[in-house]
Amino acid sequence: MDRILEKRIFAEKNDGGLDALCRDLVSYQLQSWPALKHAYEQLKSTKKRVINCNGFFVIIQHNPRRVKNIMADGVNHFSIESCFLCHKNLPSEQMGILWKEYIILTNPSPIFPNHMTISSIDHRPQRIERDIKTIFWLSLEFGPNWLIIYNGHNCGASNPHHMHFQAILRGSLPVEEEIKHKERVYVIFHNNLSLFKLKDMGREVLCLKGKDLVELERVFINLLFQLKTLTNIDDEPMVNLISFFENDEFFLIIFPRSRHRPNIFYRKEDPVYVSPAVIEMAGTIITANKRDFERLNDIIIEKIYNDVSLEVPLEGLAESLECIELFPVS
Ligand SMILES: [Zn+2]
Predict the structure, then answer these.
(1) Cα 74 to middle of ligand 1, angstroms
(2) Which residues place a Cβ less than 5 A from the ion ligand 1?
(3) Among 2, 38, 201, 329, which lies 20 to 30 A Cα-Cα from 225?
């Protein structure tokens, strides 16, 4: 281990128990890192509105600290020298929990209290295929109180050049409520794992659920391949992901995307700065400026989701995923 990384380590953990340790890290950093304390103070006064849309609801949060994330263009090729997730560039006060090939950090611009960033020790691009096991392992080792989230490199990751996940506490996002409504759930197939979609959400929401990690990984990779074909993208298709572990089962919520930003973001006159990433797709919409916070309504929100979500044709999907199961992903 290099000496710069060694100095960053608050604790090392490889076998679960991340729930308590992350809470300890947050408490420690609130004492030792004034900028984080200030960010958490600001978070307390964050304003929220609930908006009922056609069949679903969203929470709007006014959070001026997120302006950089909302406006990030995602295409700047910043090098290791300037990458803000490389451990050698972290603020001097920032410490982390070493977990396998990752370091778990407190997010300096939190959307919620206990908002963690899980950053690869190595500078490598944001791609999920190699790390799909990691999102499941993280959800297991963080335990049932947490969600592990992932933003695709071209649909919400504020740093697409450095592999990272985030973790937040459960109970923060509208989609968590909506997934509990049985009448919403439309099962596409069910054998040793289930794939289902949530109806009347104004955007496509798919969910994989099962116990067998090998099977989950295989079906997810096949689904990525289907999305790639559907969108004609050579690289990783646009997806936002949420994973959690509950009652001995893994859940993976998948938001397939057609675009990063809605039309309204780019309109010449009076744009609305909403830049959907996983938190927005899950129903919490972050606005950095007060005017956008006040003027968002059900019609604008439904239009935003319609612009950026990708509808996946269900006919033949089960067959195509099962068919590819004959060729396991190594
Ligand atoms: Zn980096």
Answers:
(1) 14
(2) 83, 85-86, 123, 162
(3) 201
